[in-house]
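Many introductory courses stop at the sequence. We go one step further.
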Amino acid sequence: MKTNMNRKGISNVVATIILIAVAIALAVAVAVWVFGLAGSASKTATLQVQAVGLNNTAALASSSGGTAYLSLLVSNPSSAAIGINGFTLGSISCVFSSPISVPAGTQGELLVIALTGSNSTFTGVNAIYLGGSQLSISATCSGKQAAQVGVQYSGYITTVSGQTYPFTVTATS
């Protein structure tokens, strides 16, 4: 049997360069796939909250109490609806009986929360309005917050997914 020792192949240098080029091409393809998935995951729903006012705070000064109104503008520029699960204003935290749905593409929808209390203290929620319509939702609140005209309060809206969106509002009479 005769072996042909004159066969020629590619050199080791060329083979190494080809292997490196294939490995780089595979790495780029995997990176494009992974970052494509991460890019779509980062397009999650986001809410924009702007405090308009905390009005009629002086009505809570008497022992018989009254109602103050927390007004917020909410916008949802994302492509998915967002559910608002509750809010915190200072030391009072409230959770809604069912989420308030803010539809996708909503711009500047007025959310009004009627806060009740007495002796200059917020203790609960009387009613909730979205876009001028009263919602048939109640709220369970814990804690209480002193209500004083001219004081600036910090708070945040909590969504169903657990995200929080802060706001700051000044109480007026």
